[in-house]
């Protein structure tokens, strides 16, 4: 029989990719757990909504549910950039869960997304952001003057370390690394570096991650959400919790696979950073907190909670 | 809710009707999507417009289109483009069809700068179409050469669709770039061979320059050679800026603009009016190209949101054919998709669906990717719907009709189809060079 | 009487659209300069700018969108003219009226969505996602203006074709346009 609710669920991974399958599982789970009352069509990268359009598309109801990457939406929902993890943030999954569920980040974010007609569902954790460079980074000093493709908050962080952040389209990273337009690039995670073939044209990965872990939400259009009966709402929420668990387990596995594959292709790690390097790294990140808190009221609330924790 | 097969049929019918009416293609595609969408989905679909606008106007990759078109307009209006062809005539002018051959060579060089079809065809068209038409070349030959040569932009590295293929299927971009070189060379040789043969069989197609009334002096010849050499140097400089890591392929168009202005000053042909007129013509061409891209993307986004990709995926799941037949089937599906979908979407949609099947049948993924690029080159220039056709119509002088363009493509589509088939049955042509260089 | 009113309307629209179409083409050299400056600043000064990326994209969007009405005025938008070129002039006018009404329908939706996005951009202070983070509101105003211009031009063209259909005469002399494009 026909479903009561026909949903479209957009994510930014390609069809058939490992991450794409996790979102496919979420869609299937919602269908099975709701006994077919909610039908979910998964839309992959390029299938009707561009990567920077997911937030807007869920907001208007063009797609019902989305897995956005908040850095793409820094100009629309600045608190999302704090949510994903400012440079220098923790990578401990336990700490992050406490922050979100016990210290009140969930309430702030529900408000922030709610103000734009979005329902904020259980966030999930994806692996950290790393920088790949053409030359080894022996100390933090080596970042001085390097041209590194790093958008938004990551760019600001690298500027604090003396590097020159460059803006480039994703599909030009490979060519630009290969010809030397840039000296390095961040990738949204190790898997992204592998998929972009960056190791063919840049060999060195820096050991300190730019952001320890990335926290990403699942969002639903408010109107579509309100059409659900309470039991269906509970079912969708339960399915996103299962999804968060799957992301945590699988993304770690894939991350290590991606690293192994890149190592087989000649990836090398820059030497272990010194204590002074680590300090400079943390300082470069901490300098951003004030700036982000001043830019947006919800970001301010999130950062105040972070500060209170320390 | 109607099924996706029926919807696809309705959309195709609407395209054919509006094409018959002679409607502006981009605006009509947008109008069809909104009209059919309103009836099947409701006004919620209208929200596809803002996200599509942001995707098309804020695409740094598409920024190559204005920059390269402007460079092309400056080159042709300052006479620098002509200087290049005049010099080449000095060398091979006695060969019938020589200008078309020079154009193919120039198109290949432009192909080595740009990574998308639009920039390739519109730049080549700006520089090379008028010189051929002015010398009395058959217009179908002239148009076909521009389309076939300009389309090489995605086959000769750098190529955006190849980068997209490699990342969607987790393959090496480097292998793909190198793997495409031999098929690209075969394409260029076949195109040149076609020009030579067809001009031999039908000399009217490419008249030889009438002998000059006064034989040019050695000094005049040297000047022509110098001017042509300098013009060629500009192309080399733009290429060099990419290879040396000064600029990305997109940005290099701006280097070309600056270089063209400097050369015009050097040739004492610089006029503010020339820069302004080139800007005006370029702006119009950019706008025309972008309204088509926008309307077509609105159309295909609607079609994708309705699930056309699932139709393709389920159709290809259990074909139950012998391996090579599966590959041929894939090529036919992509050629058919080329009726209604643009180059990037074909890659994004088909690469992840088809490639795992091809690999599981024992085929090389890089070879399959190069086949896909060769196929897209054909798909974008087969009537009635093809971006290469639209771009060429945009750049062509007012007297050229779409029928001229449709008719001009036949021999060139056949040549590209031949290359596709040669590569399909000789995978070594793709795999040999990357294995040699990269292992 | 009615015919001269239509003619005046069409001429006014043509003048406005031509003025904006020609003005926006001045952005073209500026766009090339901005991109070339970024290359210079990054390669020779080792100081990539934070603004060139977004600025060049905004300029691109302005040229692309605002030139649309002018291209329509010059009938430069690409069409498939196979059957179109074979039918008698009055049938061609019918074809044009149908096509242009479809285009007006599309542009009316683009206009409506652009105004909606503009209001949203003001309410939520939308910006680009980059470090420079320029405002988005002006882009949506520009899109609304581009849509209005295209609708005006298309409406003028529909009237022009309607007059031709009824009287068999052209109220606008298009021969000068063609000379201009050839130059
Ligand atoms: Na190319
Ligand atoms: Na086609």
Automatic annotation (TrEMBL), chain C:
Location(s) in or outside the cell: Cell inner membrane
TM spans (from-to): 51-72, 93-115, 135-152
GO molecular function, one term: transmembrane transporter activity
Keywords: Cell inner membrane, Cell membrane, Membrane, Transmembrane, Transmembrane helix, Transport
Ranges of residues in domain Tripartite ATP-independent periplasmic transporters DctQ component: 32-160
Family classification: Belongs to the TRAP transporter small permease family.
Pfam family, one: DctQ
Keyword tRNA processing: no
Record protein name field: TRAP transporter small permease protein
Function: Part of the tripartite ATP-independent periplasmic (TRAP) transport system.
Topology with respect to the bilayer: Multi-pass membrane protein
Cellular component GO terms, alphabetical: plasma membrane
Quaternary structure and partners: The complex comprises the extracytoplasmic solute receptor protein and the two transmembrane proteins.
């Amino acid at each position: 029989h026909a479903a009561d609710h026909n949903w479209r669920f957009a994510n930014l991974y390609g069809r058939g990719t490992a991450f794409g399958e996790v979102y496919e599982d979420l869609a299937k789970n919602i269908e099975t757990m709701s006994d077919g009352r909610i039908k979910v069509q998964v839309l992959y990268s390029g299938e009707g909504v561009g990567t920077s359009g997911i937030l807007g598309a869920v907001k208007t109801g063009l797609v019902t549910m989305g897995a956005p990457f908040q850095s793409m939406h820094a100009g629309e929902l600045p608190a999302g950039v704090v949510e994903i993890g400012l440079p220098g943030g923790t990578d401990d999954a336990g700490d992050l869960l406490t922050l979100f569920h016990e210290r009140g980040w969930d309430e702030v974010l529900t408000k922030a997304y709610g103000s734009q007609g979005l329902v904020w569902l259980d966030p999930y954790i994806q692996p950290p952001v790393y920088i790949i460079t053409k030359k080894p980074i022996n100390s933090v000093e080596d970042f001085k003057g390097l041209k590194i493709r790093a958008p938004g908050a990551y760019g600001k962080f690298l500027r604090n370390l003396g590097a020159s952040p460059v803006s480039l389209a994703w599909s030009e990273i490979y060519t630009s690394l290969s010809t030397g337009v840039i000296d390095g690039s961040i990738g949204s995670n190790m898997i992204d570096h592998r998929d972009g073939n960056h190791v063919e044209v840049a060999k060195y990965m820096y050991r300190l991650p730019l952001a320890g872990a990335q926290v990403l939400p699942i969002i639903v259009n408010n109107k579509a959400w309100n059409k659900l009966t309470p039991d269906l709402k509970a079912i969708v929420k339960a399915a996103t919790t299962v999804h968060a668990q799957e992301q945590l387990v699988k993304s770690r596995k894939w991350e290590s696979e991606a690293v192994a594959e890149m190592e087989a292709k000649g990836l090398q790690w820059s030497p272990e950073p010194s204590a002074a390097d680590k300090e400079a790294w943390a300082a470069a990140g901490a300098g951003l907190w004030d700036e982000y808190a001043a830019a947006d009221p919800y970001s301010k609330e999130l950062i105040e909670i972070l500060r209170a924790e320390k | 809710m109607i099924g996706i097969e029926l919807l696809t049929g309705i959309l195709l019918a609407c395209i054919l009707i509006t094409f018959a009416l002679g409607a502006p293609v981009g605006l009509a595609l947008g109008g069809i999507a909104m009209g059919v969408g309103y009836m099947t989905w409701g006004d919620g679909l209208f929200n596809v417009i803002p996200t599509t606008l942001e995707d098309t106007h804020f695409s740094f990759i598409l920024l190559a289109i204005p920059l390269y078109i402007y460079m092309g307009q400056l080159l042709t209006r300052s006479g620098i483009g002509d200087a290049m062809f005049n010099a080449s005539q000095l060398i091979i002018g006695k060969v019938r069809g020589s200008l078309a051959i020079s154009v193919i060579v120039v198109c290949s060089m432009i192909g080595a700068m740009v990574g998308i079809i639009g920039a390739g065809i519109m730049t080549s068209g700006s520089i090379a179409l008028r010189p051929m038409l002015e010398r009395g070349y058959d217009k179908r030959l002239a148009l076909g050469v521009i389309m076939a040569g300009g389309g090489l932009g995605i086959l000769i590295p750098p190529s955006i669709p190849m980068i997209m293929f490699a990342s969607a299927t987790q393959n090496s971009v480097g292998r793909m770039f190198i793997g495409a070189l031999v098929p690209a060379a075969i394409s260029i040789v076949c195109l040149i061979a076609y020009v030579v043969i067809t001009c031999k069989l039908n000399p009217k197609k490419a008249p030889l320059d009438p002998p000059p009334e006064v034989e040019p002096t050695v000094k005049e010849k040297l000047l022509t050679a110098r001017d042509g050499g300098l013009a060629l140097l500009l192309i080399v400089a733009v290429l060099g800026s990419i290879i040396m890591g000064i600029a990305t392929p997109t940005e290099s168009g701006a280097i070309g603009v600056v270089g063209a202005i400097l050369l015009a000053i050097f040739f004492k042909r610089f006029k503010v009016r020339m820069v302004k007129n080139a800007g005006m013509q370029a702006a119009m061409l950019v706008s025309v190209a972008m309204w088509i891209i926008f309307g077509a993307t609105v159309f295909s986004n609607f079609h994708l949101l309705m699930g056309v990709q699932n139709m393709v995926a389920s159709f290809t799941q259990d074909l139950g054919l012998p391996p090579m037949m599966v590959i041929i089937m894939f090529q036919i599906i992509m050629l058919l998709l080329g009726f209604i979908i643009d180059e990037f979407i074909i890659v994004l949609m088909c690469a992840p669906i088809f490639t795992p099947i091809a690999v599981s049948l024992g085929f090389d993924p890089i070879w399959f990717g190069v086949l896909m690029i060769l196929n897209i080159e054909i798909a974008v220039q087969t009537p009635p719907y093809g971006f290469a056709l639209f771009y060429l119509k945009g750049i062509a002088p007012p007297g050229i009709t779409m029928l001229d363009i449709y008719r001009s493509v036949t021999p060139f589509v056949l040549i590209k189809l031949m290359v596709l088939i040669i590569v399909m049955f000789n995978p070594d042509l793709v795999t040999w060079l990357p294995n040699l260089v990269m292992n | 009487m009615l015919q001269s009113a239509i003619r005046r309307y069409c001429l006014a629209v043509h003048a406005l659209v031509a003025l904006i179409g020609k003005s926006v083409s001045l952005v073209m050299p500026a766009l090339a300069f901005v991109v070339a400056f970024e290359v210079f600043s990054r390669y020779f000064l080792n100081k990539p700018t934070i603004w060139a990326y977004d600025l060049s994209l905004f300029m691109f969007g302005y040229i692309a969108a605002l030139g649309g009405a002018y291209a329509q005025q010059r009938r430069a938008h690409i069409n498939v003219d196979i059957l179109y070129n074979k039918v008698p002039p009055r049938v061609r006018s019918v074809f044009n009226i149908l096509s242009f009404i479809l285009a007006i329908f599309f542009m009316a939706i683009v206009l409506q969505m652009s105004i909606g996005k503009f209001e949203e951009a003001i309410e939520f202070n939308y910006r680009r996602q980059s470090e420079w983070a320029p405002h988005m509101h002006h882009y949506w105003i520009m899109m609304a203006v581009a849509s209005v211009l295209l609708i005006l031009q298309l409406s003028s063209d529909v009237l022009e074709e309607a007059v031709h259909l009824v009287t068999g005469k052209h109220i606008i002399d298009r021969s000068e346009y063609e000379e201009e494009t050839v130059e």
